[in-house]
C-alpha cells in the first residue's frame, strides 16, 4: 500500500469531493446493523459476471461493482478511464494508474466517522479479521438467500481412505475455525513455491475450503491432501492408524512453513512470523524458575500451538513432587489447567545453576500463559506409553462450553507467604473479556489404544452442533458434545467471534 499520496486521487477529490466515497463506505463497507449487512450481501454482486466475491471493488466514478480476481473491475477502469475503485472489504482506494492501494488521511477520517476504518479489519496483535464473508457466500447457494438457523452451508462429509479418520476429524476442525476459514476463502495466499513438482499444502487447503463451502453436499474425497501429507510428513505415510494430535501439529507446521515465505520476515527467527497459522494458533507460554536459596526468578517465554494436559496422577502417584497437589487424577479441564500452571518442586536431582547465586540450587518451576492465542487447543493425554506398558485413559473429563483463561495468565500470579512462590489466582470477580473462549470443535477417540476410531463435533452456528463421522454428518445436541470423552478441545476467543 502506498502512503505517499496519489495525484489521481487528489485530482478526483478536487473535482468531485468525497461524497461518493462516503456513500460507498456507509452502505457497502461499514454495514453496522444486521439489516445493513443483509442489504450489502444482496447488493454486492459483480455487474459483469453476476457473482459475488470477497475481492469485489466499487468504482469511485460511477455505479459499478466488479471482480478484482476475474479482472472485471480492471476492464471497466480501462474502458471508462475510471482510475479509482474502493475495496469493499477494507475500504481502501485502489488507483489503476498507479497500480497500488492508496492511503489517504481524509478518507480514513471518513471511515472513522462511519464506525469502521481499515484498522477495524485488524484484530488483536495485528491479526487480520475479514468481515461479511459468510454473507457473501450465501450467493453461491441459490437455495439459501438469507441467514437462517437451519442453514448447513459448510457441512460436508469426508471419505475414509483407509484408516484416515485421524485426518478427517482434524480437517473438519480446521475448516470450521472461523478466522482460518475467512483467510482461505479470501484469496489471500500468494504461492511462491519455485519447484512446481513440490505441491503447496496451503494451495490445497484453499481448494479444500472452497469445496466445503461450495454448497455441494456429497462427501468429499481428500486424496490430494492425503498425498501431500504423505509427501511432506513421511512419518504419517501409510494406511496405519495415526494419532489425530500428531497430525494436527504436523499440519500446522506444514501450513506455517508454506505460509511464512509470504510475510517478508526473516526465517532465521522462527518465533517472529505473522503467517495466518501463527496469528491464529500461536500463544506464549511463560516459564518461571525460582531459586529456593535466594528467590531469584529466571523467566523464559516459548511459543506454543497447543497445550498438552496430563490426566494421570502426578509422578510418583502422590503429592510429593508438587507443592499443591493432592495426588488424585484431575476431575475437569479446569483442574487440568490448575495442575498445569501450579508450581512444581524440581527436587535435588534437578538442580539448576542460579544466575544470582552462581551455584547449583534447588528450585521451583511454574508455567503460565503470557500470551493467549486466538484459538486455544487443549490436548488431553489419553494415551500413556512407558517401557513395555501402553494403555488408554478413558476417564471422563468435563469441559465447559465457555472458558475463562484469566486465572492461568502470567498477570494473575501472586506471591505466597513471602517466599515469592508464584501461584495462579482463582478467577476474580472482574474477569477480562479478552481471555474468554467458546468451544467450537471436539475430537474424540473411540475404542482402545490398539484399535480405535476418531470422530468429532463441530459448531456450525452459535447454538448448532454436528457430529462428523467420516462421510456421515448428523445433528448433535450441546449436551452430547459436553458429555463426550474429549481428546482434542478447540476454543475460539469470544472477542473475535461474530455471527
TrEMBL record:
Q: Which residues form the UBP-type domain?
A: 4-121
Please give the Pfam families that the UniProt record associates with this protein. UCH, zf-UBP
Q: Where is the USP domain?
A: 156-494
Task: Provide this UniProt record's keywords sorted from A to Z.
Answer: Hydrolase, Metal-binding, Nucleus, Protease, Thiol protease, Transcription, Transcription regulation, Ubl conjugation pathway, Zinc, Zinc-finger
Q: Which CDD domains match?
A: Peptidase_C19D
The principal location of this protein is nucleus
Superkingdom, taxonomy of origin: Eukaryota
A single Gene Ontology biological process assigned to it is:
protein deubiquitination
Which reaction is catalysed here?
A: Thiol-dependent hydrolysis of ester, thioester, amide, peptide and isopeptide bonds formed by the C-terminal Gly of ubiquitin (a 76-residue protein attached to proteins as an intracellular targeting signal)
Entry keyword Disulfide bond: no
Q: What are the subcellular locations of this protein?
A: Nucleus
Q: Which GO terms describe its molecular function?
A: cysteine-type deubiquitinase activity; zinc ion binding
Task: State its Enzyme Commission number(s).
Answer: 3.4.19.12
> Which cellular component terms (GO) are annotated to the entry?
nucleus
| UniProt entry tagged with the keyword Chloroplast | no
Signal peptide annotation: none
Q: Which family does it belong to?
A: Belongs to the peptidase C19 family. UBP8 subfamily.
Q: What is this protein called?
A: Ubiquitin carboxyl-terminal hydrolase
